[in-house]
Design brief:
Length: 286
């Protein structure tokens, strides 16, 4: 095995080829889920942190011309900002697309009066669930609540989730719910990571995008991708994404590879522009 093969042994050959092709696009946007993709999953969401190798590769990517990086998470924007360390020049999308910080000064979630009313009904219903299932951890989000059951015995988690679905569904008509890994989320605003990807594409004017995600809610983002984009499922589970890596370690390899390929491509573009300038000077002397 060569040194190069060892460094990228978590990347399947077809993905390697797709990444090299992606690196040659004119405006690149790299969008990444946070938990389970950059950060290994942990019992306490507040303790999740990116793998340092992925963090470093993201710093390299955002320093390049015509290259943007966005984190697209189910976390509330503030929570995403805290755990990600809010890396400079990285765009942040929270609450599955209900909250944005795209560096243009417009931050936060906009809710209608009806949605605000639904949010207070939802709060009441969530308090009811927690009084019956005190081991469930509640995360408040700007447009809803997430009920975390990670680390609880399977039957306790199941009972709590069933109770939550039934009681909250009855109490708050129109509430949307989505199940993730050991989490059940309720929101009064309809938004998906697919909406987030569409908005991101418009904002960055990307000619091609990469999206990597590990959970069921990431399927909306994969489905919103277009020909020439690259969708990467991280870990087990069925997916519409054509590419797959096994772990957050493999994500680090993938991002390092992409950063290197992108840098080399841009250096090549800059060098050929210099050659073109030099030859036009050489021939333009009359
Ligand atoms: Mg995730």
């Amino acid at each position: 095995m060569t040194e190069q093969e060892r460094r990228f042994d978590g990347i399947p050959a077809d993905l390697l080829e797709a990444l090299r092709r992606l690196a040659r696009t004119s405006e690149l946007t790299v969008a990444l889920d946070f938990d389970g993709v950059l950060a290994p999953l942990v019992d306490r969401p507040s303790e999740a942190r990116s793998r340092p190798e992925s963090e470093q590769a993201i710093r390299e990517l955002v320093a390049l011309k015509a290259t943007k990086v966005a984190l697209v998470s189910g976390r509330a924007l503030e929570s995403l900002r805290t755990v990600s360390g809010s890396p400079e020049n990285v765009l942040l999308i929270g609450s599955h697309g209900a909250e944005y910080d795209l560096g243009d000064g417009r931050v936060g979630a906009a809710m209608t009066a009806e949605e605000r009313r639904a949010l207070s009904e939802l709060e009441h219903a969530v308090l009811g669930v927690v009084s019956r299932h005190p081991d469930v951890r509640v995360e408040q989000k700007p447009t809803g609540y997430a009920l975390h059951t990670r680390g609880l015995p399977h039957d306790v988690a199941q009972q709590a989730q069933r109770d939550a679905s039934r009681s909250i569904g009855n109490a708050v008509p129109g509430v949307t719910s989505r199940a993730g890994k050991d989490v059940l989320e309720f929101s009064v605003v309809r938004s998906t990571k697919g909406d987030a990807m569409q908005r991101l594409r418009l904002h960055t004017a990307a000619t091609s995008m990469l999206y990597a995600g590990d959970d069921v809610t990431d399927e909306d983002a994969f489905a919103a991708l277009e020909p020439g984009d690259v969708a990467v499922k991280v870990g087990q589970g069925s997916s519409v994404a054509p590419f797959r890596v096994r772990s957050t370690e493999d994500v680090s390899q993938m991002l390092r590879l992409l950063a290197g390929a992108r840098r080399n491509h841009l250096l090549g573009v800059a060098a050929s522009a210099r050659v073109a300038r030099a030859s036009s000077v050489g021939f333009g002397g009359e």
